[in-house]
């Protein structure tokens, strides 16, 4: 009966219940022991075996509960670890996404800046060209313009009206320069009569031009 005094009170409650003994939760271990051993039909061997079974079941249940609690704790810790890993992965992905978006924004801003700089450069070149460009003006021949020497042949393409005297004078000047004798110098075998006629015409023209000159004076 010593085992009854060394057991737990909850084991004695279960033992009293199995033996159909009336008890309440306020009883102590000693009271329960006296209740069990003093009961009618008490069998020490049966009571001992029954008590051992109750203690074994209790320990088994406690171990099972402890194991389940440990397993649950491990599952909880694993779940927390997975959650933390997922959160860490999500933070890394979010950071990488922010970096990627920032790089795209920087590239876009760079392209915009380059485009604006190109526009400014083109505009500056256009403004510079507009400031320095002068439309070519049509050359107007002015016979009274004293800035050009009389020998300048500016009326080659901008012919002004000339008088008969001026035509004769031009012919005379060209004849004196040998323009009308070049063919004969290059080709001495030409007809001498024709050459004489050309010289005669020049002399005649010179006389005519001098007469016109006296007339104009």
What do these coordinates show?
The protein has 217 residues and is mainly α. 72% of the residues lie in helices and 0% in strands. Mean pLDDT is 75; it is low at 154-158, 180-203 and 212-217. Keywords: Coiled coil.
Proportion in β-strands:
under 5%
For the CA atoms, what is the radius of gyration?
68 Å
Helix content: over 70%
DSSP strand tally: 0
Distance between the first and last residues' Cα? 176 Å
Shape, please? rod-shaped
Poorly predicted runs of 5 or more residues = 154-158, 180-203, 212-217
**Average pLDDT metric:** 75
Global structural class: mainly alpha
Number of helices: 7
Describe the main β-sheet briefly: none
SSE pattern: HHHHHHH
Coiled coil: 66-112
Biased composition (Polar residues): 190-217
Keywords: Coiled coil
Region (Disordered): 181-217
Q: Which features characterize this protein?
A:
217 residues; mainly alpha; 7 helices; 72% helix; disordered C terminus
How would you concisely characterize the structure shown here?
This protein has 217 residues and is an all-alpha fold. Helix content is 72%, strand content 0%. Residues 190-217 have a biased composition (Polar residues).
Present the secondary structure layout.
Elements: H1 2-6, H2 9-18, H3 29-37, H4 44-132, H5 164-176, H6 182-186, H7 192-216
Helix pairs in contact: 2-3, 2-4, 5-7
